Prior knowledge:
Helix content is 44%, strand content 16%. It is an alpha/beta fold and 393 residues long. The chain folds into two domains: 21-51 and 292-389, Aspartate Aminotransferase, domain 1 (Alpha-Beta Complex), CATH 3.90.1150.10; 58-290, Type I PLP-dependent aspartate aminotransferase-like (Major domain) (Aspartate Aminotransferase, domain 2), CATH 3.40.640. The strands form three sheets. It has a seven-stranded mixed sheet, sandwiched between helices. The protein has a three-stranded mixed sheet with strand order 1-2-11. Strands 10-13-12 form a three-stranded antiparallel sheet. α4 packs parallel to α12 (275-290), α5 packs parallel to α6 and α13 packs parallel to α15.
Amino acid sequence: MTTNKLQFIVDERARLENEGLLVKVRTIESAQDAWIRVDGNRVLNLCSNNYLGFANHPRLKAAAQAAIDEFGVGPAAVRSIAGTTILHTKLEETLARFKRVEATISFQSGFNSNLATIPSLVGKEDLIFSDELNHASIIDGCRLSGAPIIRFEHCNPASLEQKLNENITTNRLLIITDGVFSMDGDIAPLPELVEIAERFNAMIMVDDAHGEGVLGESGRGAVDHFRLHNRVDVEIGTLSKAFGVIGGFVAGKAIVIEHLRQKGRPFLFSSALTPADVAACSAAVDILESSDNLVQKLWSNARYFKKKMREAGFDTGRSETPITPIMLGEAKTAQEFSRRLFEQGVFAMAIGFPTVPMGKARIRVMISATHSEPDLDFGIERFIAIGKDLRVI
Length: 393
């Protein structure tokens, strides 16, 4: 009898479904906003990364449309050959001014930004010290570098210092942390981590995907939030969350950015961001430079939602940001909770292993500046009703 060589996939799918870990993708049928159409239903959107409402902002749409009219729909080349337009250089100059750094370089995604940067800074003879809850793109970038990866306890400077003391070397050292952790919403203790990096003469890199547009003055990020300019060697940002479009960037000293133009493989071997994306991203930064109203609205909504949910008895974990995990424990409970929310008009997906540790499944609520208090009340009421029915509050 011939063995089915794909049976392992069938078996794995059955296991995931049995454990409540099977990812079920829903289909969006409208532009991202506070209310959207999903699988034919109008629902309150509580799970997108559209922090500031830029994904459907009229100024960004107008900028994208104008860019298409002038530059077409695609770059048709990698950045180092014929893919760098004046729009790309303008975005990078705008981002550098916004981030208060010497220079920036843009990539196709935040994920690609990490894959480009980490292997360009360290190799197999060097050491990487990585927070144990860092994003998957950091983990993959570290693996690509070939450097040994030493994990320190989450948001624990003392653990980092201990690991550094245990691994004294004359080779390059790179400390990496998320600025804001995407599943728990907590903020890295950057002042302490930077001080340790300086004492050990180590480079320090911050992936601020969920800090951009959220923390700091007008959303300039975690480094700005802690006033650590010129003390963090590399900042990674994404343009697909608060900025509402797609892409990523690296910010820092001009010499580092030029190094990435020579060594960053996604820059050298993958097509550039489209003209529409680049123009829309520049428009988003222009809005943030002119006003922090949307950032303030985001935080007002986050405080309101968290207060009401905690008063109702929900566990919102250790969140310090608009990312609000509703901790439920078992994956099957989270899946059932999400299914019932959708039936009652709320789109909020369950998140389980391996995205979060076993036994820490949750509904991760993503608050936006587009939400009104009545919108949030609608969601809160349904969370409470289902929470009581499932006996989680």
